[in-house]
Design brief:
Keywords: Ion transport, Iron, Iron transport, Signal, Transport. Helix content is 44%, strand content 18%. By secondary structure, the chain is of the alpha/beta class.
C-alpha cells in the first residue's frame, strides 16, 4: 500500500480504490477521488499564478525543504505550485536548510509540515518560533 513517489496522485487514487474494494466501499472510494479531483481542478489554475512555493518539514528543530518529485511533492506536482528551490537536487529525505536560507529563498507560499506536532514530541520548538527568531 505504499505510494509511488513519481506518481503520488495516481498512486493515491489507486490505493483508495483498492481499499474501497477491500472493505466493500467502492462507491465511497470513487466519491472521495472525484471530490479530490474537483478540489485539485479548482486550486490548480490559481496555483499556477500564485508564485513560488516551498514545502518544508520541521522535525527536532531542523528544517528540511522538499523539491518537486520528492516525498512531499504533491504541492508542486498535483496542485501546480512552482518551486522556490532553484536546485535540481531531489533528495527524498529533504534538503537541510537554516531559517536564513528559507528567508533567502523568499517563497510566496510556505507549506509547513510539523512532524513534532504530528508525533506528539514533547518540548518541541514550534516552527513559527524557529522561522521568526532573529537571524
Amino acid at each position: 500500500m505504499s505510494v509511488d513517489q513519481q506518481d503520488q496522485l495516481g498512486s493515491l487514487k489507486q490505493r483508495t480504490l483498492q481499499l474501497g474494494e477491500l472493505f466493500d466501499k467502492q462507491q465511497q472510494a470513487q466519491a472521495a477521488i472525484d471530490k479530490l479531483d474537483a478540489q485539485i481542478a479548482a486550486v490548480k489554475p490559481q496555483a499556477a499564478q500564485a508564485g513560488r512555493g516551498l514545502v518544508v518539514l520541521f522535525s527536532g528543530g531542523k528544517i528540511s525543504a522538499y523539491a518537486p518529485k520528492s516525498r512531499f511533492s504533491f504541492v508542486y506536482d498535483a496542485l501546480g505550485f512552482a518551486s522556490a528551490l532553484q536546485s535540481d537536487e531531489k533528495d527524498v529525505r529533504g534538503n537541510k536548510l537554516t531559517p536564513e536560507q528559507v528567508a533567502k529563498l523568499n517563497p510566496d507560499w510556505l507549506f509547513v509540515i510539523d512532524r513534532d506536532a504530528a508525533t506528539g514530541r514533547p518540548n518541541a520548538v514550534a516552527p513559527q518560533k524557529i522561522l521568526t527568531a532573529p537571524h
